[in-house]
Amino acid sequence: MRIPAWTEDELVLAGALVVRNGWRELRTRDPEVQELSELLRSLPLHTAEARALPGFRSLDSVSRKTTDFMTNHSAYTGKATRCGKPNPAHDPGFHQA
């Protein structure tokens, strides 16, 4: 089983962290990342099987999501992340509609 995509509710919570942090990413040692990871792992938004996966909404995945938000902000001058979107160059079976 693969880790499920983030729901809109999960994205809103992660995005709120970034906004409160001045549109800067938060790292895994940040207490807010730790709290959000624990919350997301406890919410019944996904099956118990999905929530039991080791990487499900881990500290690393929550921190990465904050990086996605930061790098896609209009004021960010570096290269934006893909935000979890498939990369056609790495997936020959991917076809955009």
UniProtKB/TrEMBL annotation:
Residues 77-97 are annotated as: Disordered. It comes from the Bacteria. This is Transposase. It comes from Streptomyces edwardsiae.
